[in-house]
Amino acid sequence: MAKKAEIGKCVHCLRDGVELTSDHMFPKAWYPDATPETLERWTFPSCFDCNQQYSKIEGDLLNRVALALDTKHEASQGLADAALRAMDPKAGRDEKDAAARAARGRKMLGEMFKGEEIPQGQIMTGLGERWGRPKAEQLAIQIPRAGLDAMTEKMVRGLAYREDNRFIESPYKIDTYVDGAGAEIAREMIQRAGKEYKREPGLEIIRAVPDDDVESAIYEITFWQQFKTYAIVQQQSGRYDSPQGYRVLGRAERVETGDLWCHQGKEHREWLPAKLIGERQPNNDYCRKVISA
């Protein structure tokens, strides 16, 4: 007999009463070859739509990041090979898959920078040139900030659920940062009072929770022991909440007709009808009218 679907609340979009799937906190494809077979792969409940949306983000992000990782590092062994296979038409299961891999490879090559084109001020900490090549021979791949933000938020929501059985929802919000400018305060607090959570060798998380508000937290997330992102979960002022009858969209959710948008910040501007449908803009927040069952 088929197993009865579990009904409950999605960790990502916070919709309740939906059919749930099991979402891997650290994506299955992101575990390096050196991962012990006995390591528990952390999972949490997600609706089908959010699971599928994150799957697309995870695949695209891994194909890009893996090309900048150290192929000799134990924490990232096998990932670059997997990324290259994803762009190799010869590895296709059939003609359709081969064409998709070829198109993916053309897209990736078309978005690369070479030599003097590489914007030096935008190189991620930990993912710079590691092969000692002359500047003219160096290549750089674009890594979408929106994808990094989405994955950081996923780790934060997943850990809060696993450790505290808690959903991060209004009036709390997650602000994400890449390593570098803007992460100094988070880094300082993490070093003073952080607790480690690890899925070695691919993922390491340190979380610091203030004594006066256990629902707030600061996170440092290290991927493959080579680069970091940060997140701060904190309570926002009333003006930050979405309008009555609306819910704030998760980072993986696509913008639809009828959604509202507002620029991120401690003090929001007026919520306005969204005009750019599809991929969300990284500096905006979005909300959607709640439809009662």
Report on this structure.
The protein is α+β, with helices and mostly antiparallel strands and 293 residues long. 24% of the residues lie in helices and 23% in strands. The chain contains 5 helices and 14 strands. The protein has helices at 48-65, 79-85, 95-110, 145-164, 184-193; strands at 7-8, 18-24, 43-47, 113-114, 139-140, 172-178, 195-199, 203-208, 217-223, 227-235, 246-248, 260-263, 272-273, 284-289. The strands form 4 sheets. A 5-stranded antiparallel beta sheet has the order 6-10-9-8-7, sandwiched between helices. Strands 11-14-12-13 form a 4-stranded antiparallel beta sheet, with no helix packed on it. The protein has a 3-stranded antiparallel beta sheet with strand order 1-2-3. A hairpin with an 8-residue loop joins β8 and β9 (217-223). The longest helix has 20 residues, at 145-164. The protein is globular. The mean pLDDT is 88.
| Structural Rg | 20 Å
In spatial order, strands of the major sheet run: 6-10-9-8-7
Assess the beta-strand content as a share of residues. Answer: 15-25%
Q: What's the main sheet like?
A: 5 strands, antiparallel
Could you say which structural class the secondary elements and strand pairing correspond to? Answer: alpha+beta
Distance between the termini: 29 Å
